[in-house]
Specification:
It contains nine helices and eight strands. It is an alpha/beta fold. The N terminus is likely disordered.
Amino acid sequence: MALSRKQPVKQYQKSPYFSVYQPIVDVRGKKVMGYEALIRGKGKFKNPEELFRQSYADGLTIALNLECLNTAFQILPSLPKGKRLFVNVEPITLARCFGSGREAEFLLRRFDTFNNNVVIEMTEGMKVRDFNLVKKSVSYLRRHHCQFAVDDVVGIGSKLLKILSLRPDYIKVGMALIRNVTQNKFQQNLIKQLTEIGNEIGSIMIAEGVERKEELDYVKHLGIHLIQGYYFSKPKKILPASVRGYT
């Protein structure tokens, strides 16, 4: 069943969660270019994947996602000059809540001074039938000076190609393709293809989940210069002033 604009957004009772921030490093410019906000919690909310799985089961995904956005956005006034904040948005939230008079508008207006520092990452799971809703929402984001990224890309298919027709500002290569990439020709070929597509449509590539120097060296060899992963820093509650000499 396709998404309906008329479906009510259920209320979500606040949970004990908070944002942590992981730097995204520009290895060519030798600087931290931004941070991804990631949700964390305590007790039964400790695992964010389980939290969102349960929210889908309860019909509370949008409300939870909006609260996560609000939590992440609190760092914007403290964000160092010129840095970007990457925040995750579920496809259902992007399709239904980003538009004039919709639920996410109050956030963009509340933080409108910082909108040009915001990158909205759409997570995996978009239904092809909902593509037109997502397309309208991406246009809305850009009118509000936000950028758009595709998160956790691990393969090439018809659905991804439709999303890439929106010419995202960033394409994030998922950890599953980065892990042990130097030992796997299939992963190497996929990353090469994605990088070629990104170059063709003007998207900037980001390698996620980089933990080892050999992984870093390989993606740099392919021309990917924005890197995120434990090699530089684990996610932290405060924005790290520097990572491995990058500031």
